[in-house]
Each structure stands twice: as C-alpha cells, then as structure tokens.
Amino acid sequence: MQNQTTRRWMLMLVFCCVLSAAGRLPVGAQSAGENFEGALVYSRALEEGTEYVKLSSGYRYTHTVSLEDFSTVSPGGVYVAKSSPALDELVIIDLSTQEIVIQEPWHPDWRPYSLGWLSDSQLYVLKESSISENYVYDISSGALVPSSYQPLPRSPYPPLPDWVPYIRQNYILPSPTEGVYLYQRCPGAVTVGEGENASCATDYDFVVYDYNLQV
Q1: What is the DSSP code string of the chain?
Q2: With bands split at pLDDT 50, 70 and 90, how would you rate the model's confidence at 64?
Q3: Distance between CA 140 and CA 16 in Å, rounded?
Q4: Which end of the chain is more exposed for a tag (fewer CB within 10 A), N or C?
Q5: How confident is the model at residue 81, as a pLDDT?
C-alpha cells in the first residue's frame, strides 16, 4: 500500500513538472493538487479570473470565476462557492455539472469575502460582528441548512520556508513520506495586492522540502 501511494505521489510530481514546463501549472489552489479518491482538484489564476479544475475518471471539469468575485472550492472539488459584490449574493455551483445548486441573497450578518469549507457538504461564513465565530450550513439537501458551530479547520501543513498560503501562488503537494512537500516558494515571502488578488512580488519557484530535516 505504501509503495502504491509513493508511486502515486511520484507520478503526480512528474505531472506537476510537465505542467510547469508547458506553462500550465495550476496556481492559487485551495486544496491544490490533493488526490481525493482518484480526483485531482486544483485552481489556477487566469487573466479573467480563477479557474477551478477537477480531473476525475478520465474527465476534466472546469469553472472560471471572475476577478470581481470571491470564490472557494470544496475539499473534494464537488462544489465551488462564490460571492458577488455586484449582485450581493451567494452562489454554489456543482463543479461536475456546472449547475447552480444554491443561489441566495447575501445576508447582512455575513461578513463579505469570508466563505470556506469544512467538508464537501458543510460551508461556513464568518459572522459580520465577530472575528472568530461563523455560521455553518449543510448544503447536501440543496439548501442552506444551519448546522452546529464548528471551529475553523487548521491548516494541515506546517510552516514552510517562503510558502504563503493566502496568495495565488500557493500550490502544495504532500508526499506519502511524512513531512515532505512539493510547493510553490515565494522568495522572501514578499507579496503584492490584497485578498484574492494577492500574489508573489517576484518570480516564484518550486521546491521539495523535508520539514523533518529542515532542508
């Protein structure tokens, strides 16, 4: 089992290198490059916005969100949630079918640009009046069903040299060998822009880092 997992990670590493050579390596991914039951999910920054991509069972599913909208993909790439300041609404789209699953007016007690996922069926939105509390909704029924409060998930990755998780160039791929990561490094962690437009101020590169050995 370990050998199979190791081979899979090596193949994904080769996959990343091929995409990089072709100038097509995905950037800005949330849950980028992780393998969920055979599905590879990532996002990349385009001139017109953010493209979410899901590769599963020989099929490629994509959805592009404009630069004006804030968006986030669920951990397994099932849904893309986005908020539009122009339309003042929340929209959740099924990435495989491109169908709108939920479309709701933006509630006044939701903080703008504060969407996130706890799982493929649980969406959270931060409270407008709080910096630490949020609303959690179960969307599996096709509607926003209030769920019990859960703390925001902590990053599954340790602090890595010059890896900035909140910018577009934040691709990261964990190895089956614990503590080893392939990721996009932003030299000096110097960034420009804010929010969804934040990016590395200089040319980024890709490194393989062993957190256990600190090399």
Answers
A1: -HHHHHHHHHHHHHHHHHHHHTT----S-SSTTEEETTEEEEEEEETTEEEEEEEETTEEEEEEEETTSEEEE-TTSSEEEEEETTTTEEEEEETTT--EEEEEEPPTTEEEEEEEESSSSEEEEEETT-SS-EEEEE-TTSS-EEE---PPPPPSS---TT--TTSS---EEE-SSTTEEEEEE-GGG-EES-GGG-EESS--EEEEEETTTT-
A2: very high
A3: 32
A4: N
A5: 93
Q: What is the mean predicted confidence (pLDDT) over 7-21?
A: 42
For the CA atoms of 33, 203, 154, 160, the dihedral, rounded to the nearest 10 degrees, stands at 100
What is the dihedral angle through the alpha carbons of 45, 51, 52, 58, rounded to the nearest 10 degrees? Answer: -110
The CA distance from 206 to 185, in Å, is 6
Asked if 170 and 191 count as a contact pair (C-beta separation under 8 A), the reply is: no
Rg for the chain, CA atoms, rounded: 17
pTM over 0.70: no
Cα-to-chain-centroid distance, residue 117: 10
pLDDT in tens, 78-99: 999 998 877 789 999 999 999 9
The values of phi and psi at residue 95, to 5°, are -65, -30
